[in-house]
Amino acid sequence: LYILLAGYPPFNGECDGDILRRVRIGAFDVTEDEWQFISEDAKTLVKSCLVMDPAKRITAEKALHTPWIQKLDSSAPEKQLLNAADFQKRLRNFQKESHLKKVAMTIVARQMDDAHMEKMKNTFMALDKNGDGQLSLEEVQDGVKDLGLGEWEAEALAQLLKDADVDGNGSIDYSEFLASTMHRKEMEEESRLWSAFCVFDMDGSGTITVDELEKVLQDPSIRSMSAGADCTALLKEHDLNCDGMIDFEEFLVMMR
Fold first, then answer.
1. pLDDT 10s per residue in the chain (256 long)?
2. Whole-model pTM?
3. What is the distance in angstroms between the CA of the first residue and the CA of the last residue of the chain?
4. Alpha-carbon distance 79 to 118, whole Å?
5. DSSP assignment letter at 77
6. Roughly what angle, to the nearest 10 degrees, separates helices 99-110 and 231-238?
7. Cβ proximity of 118 and 129 under 8 Å
8. Nearest CA among 219, 249, 217, 256 for reference residue 233
């Protein structure tokens, strides 16, 4: 932040020894010519970020709510959010999906770039009041009112969020939110579905076996989504020709 505003680092010196000495004593300056047009709010934030004692240094969460950051945020163009009808419809559709499809949708969501996800990303960030990357029930309950995302019965909303919480940790992370609110057109693009299928088809044989499914669901980034899941039952639900495997055509049917 200091470099962005001033154009040079906070700890300068003629040699590495001088620089390290200034770092150790925390000596920096915000009074030089480059700072004369920088607001006091911005200077206050910079100084708060460079406090030597970590216990006294401002946290990222508190920094987001300082006057300078808040003014920047309020002056930015209004961000596009999901409309109420889309938000409700997509959450309810996700609620109805099978467990294996929810896991696959989450894998697809992790592969998406932000350019395709602007409305969902903006909506997630607007709901995530404390900026921790997780949506609690309280944040969503407050957010849907503040953002005009429709009228919800408390119990119905709680159940929808529980179903969107694929890993069962009690909150909705960014991938889960994208999976549950992604437009079907984005989800059903065949190249994305093939990439997701290949995550499951570990040996590249063109089919997903029970053993492969078990291995994928044991991956640290996925394991918590499927703790205690019966992989044979999960596969059987989408094994249309009953050959004990899921091929890409059967995977497409599941995802569409």
1. 888 888 888 887 788 888 888 888 888 888 877 788 788 898 999 999 999 888 999 998 889 888 888 877 655 556 677 777 778 888 888 888 888 998 899 889 888 876 667 888 888 888 898 888 899 988 888 888 877 776 777 788 888 888 888 777 888 888 888 888 887 777 788 888 999 999 999 999 999 999 999 998 887 767 656 666 789 999 999 999 999 999 999 999 999 8
2. 0.64
3. 45
4. 9
5. P
6. 90
7. no
8. 217
Helix (H) or strand (E) holding 151: none
CA dihedral for 158, 164, 169, 172, sign (positive or negative)? negative
Looking at residue 36, what DSSP letter applies?
Answer: T
Closest CA to 109 of 185, 170, 196: 196
- What the block records as the tokens of 25 is 């004593």
Spatial distance between the Cα atoms of 59 and 187, rounded to a whole number of angstroms: 36
Side chain identity, residue 121: K
Q: Which amino acid is at 214?
A: E
Question: 187 to each of 133, 141, 142, 161, 213, how far by Cα in Å?
Answer: 22, 26, 28, 20, 21
Complete DSSP assignment for 197-232: HHHH-TT-SSEE-HHHHHHHHTSTTTGGGGTT--HH
Beta carbons of 6 and 29 less than 8 angstroms apart: no
Going from the C-alpha of 69 to that of each of 9, 45, 52, 94, 123, the distances in angstroms are 21, 9, 22, 35, 19
